[in-house]
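Check these lines:
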Amino acid sequence: MAAISQKRRILPTDNLSRDQDYESRLYAQHASQLTIGQKLAISTSVLVVLAMCVFWLVTNLTTENILRQQADSLGNTLARQTAILATELVLANDLISMNVLLNQLTREAAISQVAILSIDDQVIAISGASATPASTDLFGSYLAPIALQDSLAGYVRIHLDQRYIEQGVTRNFLFMLVALVLLILAAVSVTLAISQYFITFPMRMLTASVQSVRKGEPEPCPYGERGDEMGVLIRQYNRMIYELEDPENRQAIFGEEPDAPTVVQTPPAYRKPGSTVVSILHLSISNYRTALHEQEPLETVELLNTYYFYIHKVSQLYNGNIEKCAGDEILMTFGAAQTDEDHCFHAVCAALLFLELSETLGRELEAQSLPSLQFKAGLHCGELLTGVLLSLEQQSYTVAGENLALTRQICEEGPDGTLIISEAAYVQSDAGARLITEEFNEVVDDSNGEFIKTWLVNEPMVNYKALLSRQVEHLLAQEMTF
């Protein structure tokens, strides 16, 4: 552990691991969501299904009408021809010949029943199955008069079995289903291939180029020669990279780089007692109990003091006040003891700076086969009771209120090595313009049951990120004194 007290330098890969951790968390969070190609494939499939439904309705109605017209034409023709053949038989009252004629007709599968009726609708001869009332829709009935020299001798009635029409419609429906499945498979395959070539792959290349900018090694994105909208976007992005290489352009876009805040050496002017809006930063040691059992008590104390040293330095750097530093919890407030108009953003910077310090320190300890501590941070901005606490020996400025417990809840929700901020802190720190964040989840406030939105802070903008990197180098170069 003596090597911890010596001066340290940042490794070249210090800033890369945090980016890789962020990318892995971001990938895990969005792995379950649909890609652009999948959304386009689903939309195309829906359109194909709708188009095929309309096509089937039109073709089904057309086919059914054609088949029924053919059945009507066939039924009327058969009825007339049967009436001509049965005219002499009816006049001669030859029942045997009439039954023979009708039996020959009903041998055809399309003819269900043939009957010869008298003038008063009495059945003279009949052959075939009778049509029940439940099946009248499946059979077509056709009549033709039996006449000789303008005198009516009777009628011929034919029932055609029209179930073949429904069978044809059913076969068409099955064929349509098979065609629909094949079209959907083809549409999905073509859509995914087109989206992969024209959208997904160029977007991945653009994302890789953006990551290179974040790592300080900007690389232009290929495919800028394309003539579509994606090509225009890539060309604009590449032009922006080239323009940002000029310091004057960077200053015109991002403004002047902020200077590091100086450490206040004068005694602080405490606020008057009362209720005020304060930024509350809660740091939690995730593996505190494990670290206690991995080494001797003296080594544990030295390890804790190493991290407490940097916590104290970070607090001084951003005008914070350490309210509690014991066990696995560190509580810091900003804007409580002293007036600070930008206390919430200073709290964010302090948290990101300490997380970067602890991560770098942890890698150095692991390289020496020594245990390290893992931290996670939560930040909330709200009202607290502030004032000077008097005792017989000394007086100290302190805070109290329910927002302390809420900050602890927010901290416990986040993964190791991350900073989670509440919605109030997001607004107060102007995170939309200063920080790169993503929505995390909602935390239930145990005091009133309300849901509090939280954000995961990935990193600050480029100018503030450069400032934090210099501060990490400066603090790690200092020699620790206990």
